[in-house]
Design brief:
With 678 residues, the protein is of the alpha/beta class. The protein is 28% helix and 24% strand. The protein is globular. The two termini are 52 Å apart.
Length: 678
Amino acid sequence: MITKILKISLLLSISFSVCFSQEAEPGNLSLNHIIPKPLSVIAAQGKFELKPGTTFYYSKDALAPTGIFTALLKKSTGLNFKTAALIEEKQGVFFITSDTLKSLGEEGYRLKISPQSIKVYAKTGAGIFNATQTLRQLLPVAIEGKKTNKANWTIPCGEITDKPRYSWRGYMQDVSRTFYGVDVMKKYMDVMALYKLNVLHLHLTDDQGWRIEIKKYPKLTSAKTTVFDASSNQPAERSGFYTQDQIRELVKYAAARNIRIIPEIDVPGHSWPTVLAYPELGVNQNHKPDYIFPFLDSWSHWGNQFTPNTLDPTNEKVYEFLDGVFTELAQLFPAEYIHFGGDEVRHVLWEKEPHVQAFMKEKSLKNTNELQSYFASRVSAIIKAKGKKPIGWNDILSDKKNLTKETAIMSWLGDEAIADAAKNGFYAVATPTDPFYFDITQADRNDGTMTDLAYGNINSLEKVYNYEPETGLNDEESKFVLGVQANQWTAITQELKDMNVQNFPRLLALAEIGWIPKGNRDLNLFKDRLNLNLSRLDALKIDYYKPGGYITGKWKPEELTNDYQNIEWDVTKKTYANGRIIAGFYHTSGANFMEIKKVELLENGKVVVQDEHIGIADKFRGTHKTKSFLYHLQLNNYNPKAKYTLRASVKGINGTDSKGNFTYNLSPFDRLNVIEPR
């Protein structure tokens, strides 16, 4: 009987034809709000209903994704579904894998939904998993709840045929500058899987911390390399590292959701924790301060954002060290790539060292770009010896003629970086700062959202969705584009709520770019589907960007005098849980700035917490000095029945011609389960 079913699968494969737009057939299926948009949708009459006796049948390779899907269904519906090995039946849900379905690729699938059955066909378990996520989006939003819901658990009838454009549809999480634990990363993978993102790039090391246990080098995870110094006054959850057991747990969790984790050890720059733990590996003797600290403290310690020390590219002990590190990484991560960074190396530090100059002369290296290529080639060879493929940031292309073609490029410095890699025969992942850095503001630098480095660009949802990674490439060069990736750097975007607001809904736009065929995008139709998906994000307890960001009020010239007086704003609707609060004052226009002396949070008219310091609401939006216009409060005893008011003591500076935004952002302590109400 199984053979007969597989023959049916083969017949479907032969008859499969690609359709580059959804069919406008009558029926509910054609009105779906699936993200990313399926390749082909043909609607039919009727609905399939999930019932207590519904049985899920699976072939061998479909067992794991079937289990994850039915577990989700049981939790939300309260229905007791049955699962069984594949047999020929007329009713039920069938998950069928067959290597004859080659036209679907490794991740494609076909759904055939009738009132009696749902039949899912795919070449691999990855395709089956993607199909389950489509079914998940076809079900009511209540499917995302943690408690049993009474809903109409039906799926409209019809057929869907689907497969992705790119094999690399990624998201990079910087866990060095701010650490996020296993629970956060699992939740992120759940949402990534829902929208068919399949690569999680973990930026595990940077100047702000080493975040993975390496048994051969235990000093890498000492307190001074993983815990922010007490002087920085950082919450405890922002420090830490993953044990190897936790990494194995994450890798297993990812694999079950069709996600591969790409680890990154950023060398030879951005290596402050390494040179603190093992000073003999540094290019110089600068090790001050002897601890890690948040990114924004860099200017007070070093005068800029970059460390005054790097790994020494002339020292054989460095390569022995990296061989040991990459040996353990290769054992922990089954993914094909290991990322070795290579970005923003301060060559001036190498130019100042006589022993480095002597080494370059000995090796006939004309400049430090060639020295970096020497380092990159050595590291690439180490990674290849572990059975892995090396990948680095496109900074390593500065001496491309001496870089092995087996090293892939993660292109972040604009379209030209992608073209530079592809035209020179290097495989590349498109991850340009503009528009795929999601720590960059998406609308307005005066809206109170936590954005990094004040880049010149604004990465709006529209800009993300309309981006084409193969611009300027011919068909042959396009073959070198592996896919697309969004990056979340957490120098300023530290709270999970802020990170979610930066990532969503832009991450859904990226998911669609990576999935649907070139030239098949429609921004307006995407926005229609996106609006319906916001309710799904609400159910998943994921905050997302809303027009206006955190703007809660304004101030105007007529409210100011040349002496201190109070301005108050009702923040009851924005105060919804215990958590950390940032109140901001953003000057937007006018000849005069505003001075703030004190900010108080009142509960039913009584002050419960305050921040008293002199702040200036001015035009500064950079990162190299303290933003005095931000006020930090902490609410520990939230009263849901109370009225909350924010009171600020302010005055005009040399006049009252000042206008601006008052922003108010509460980040709940229960960051995985509580979100800001709509």
